[in-house]
Amino acid sequence: MRKLAAWLCAALIPALTFAPAQAAEISGDGYVMKGAILSTYLAGGGEAVLGLPIGVEAKSSTYSAYYQRTEQGRVWWSSADGGKAVPDTKTVRLKGARKNFRDVAGEDADALPMRRGVVYRSADLDTTSAMDRYILQTLGVTTDVMLNGGSDPSIAGITKVSAKMTAGSGDGRYEPFVTSSTQRAAIKKALTAIANSKGAVVIHCAAGKDRTGWLSAVMQMLAGVPLDQITREYLKSGWKTYGAQDVREVWLHRAVVKMYDRYDGIEGYLLDGMGLSQATVDKLAAKLA
């Protein structure tokens, strides 16, 4: 019996000794990933989902969090908020923005023929967490356009621009964005800020569905996105998803019809309706398309 026990120990010890262990870190030319940020990365699917890591691990100077860019995604981690691993085909959700935060260029299978990472849309940023604000910084956002006037928190490196818009009522809810000189002036201010921003931009109103929905549609039209795709993207922000009443297709389409009746399309709306210069319109189109 003692010989059998000795034989079993001799057979098992090598297997235990040489069993492959999880790497303590992943490193290469110019990058290193280890500790909790590595665990988050692996939990998100590792190489199969995110691809090989590039860049270096960096700690925020304004918030105790780590951020790592990868070939196909980004990883954020903090002791306060845990970790996130997000492929580039999606947009990270901000806890304090009713989950209504995404790229104006769409995401996943619904991605629009636009440049990603240029403009993000959101609900109000008033209740964003420190992690949310750090994520905005690492996404390269340098301008925050507040379509509700806003009282957003100050975020290092991000300039706030107030361009207050006011929607109408009924089925013609968005028509004032076309017919009212006051509303057109606010939209002009917002689009000028987006065109001139040195980095990415976040736009938002209170819920991120009406004023933000119209401004997003305007940029999508300028980028040449077909109306059916614009409508599908617009309808994602209904309250069924984010906490209040639905958006309605008729609101968007009536305003688009009014825009064509008055200005013969998106360029006439921007040039003649708002008084934007051709240079600004061209600059904005080049950013988005």
Description:
The protein has 289 residues and is of the alpha/beta class. It is built from twelve helices and eleven strands. It has helices spanning 2-18, 35-43, 46-50, 130-138, 176-179, 181-196, 211-222, 227-234, 239-242, 249-263, 266-273, 278-288, and strands at residues 25-28, 31-34, 58-59, 65-69, 73-78, 82-87, 102-103, 119-122, 141-146, 159-162, 200-204. It has a five-stranded mixed β-sheet with strand order 7-8-11-9-10, with helices on both faces. Strand 1 (25-28) and strand 2 (31-34) form a beta hairpin. Helix 6 (181-196) packs across helix 12 (278-288). The longest helix has 17 residues, at 2-18. The protein is elongated. The chain starts with a helix and ends with a helix. Mean pLDDT is 85; it is low at 3-20.
Summarize the structure.
By secondary structure, the protein is α/β, with parallel strands linked by helices.
Observed structural traits:
about 290 residues; 4-stranded antiparallel sheet; elongated
Low confidence ranges: 3-20
Strands of the biggest beta sheet: in what spatial order?
7-8-11-9-10
Kindly state the mean pLDDT as a whole number? 85
The proportion of residues in beta strands is 15-25%
Counted by DSSP, the helix tally is 12
**Helix/strand order:** HEEHHEEEEEEHEEHHEHHHHHH
Number of strands: 11
Described by its quaternary structure, the protein is: single chain
Using the CA coordinates, give the radius of gyration: 24 Å
Give the helix level as a range of percent.
40-55%
Query: Which class do the helix and strand fractions yield?
Result: alpha/beta
Give the CA-CA distance, first to last residue: 77 Å
Principal-axes geometry comes out as elongated
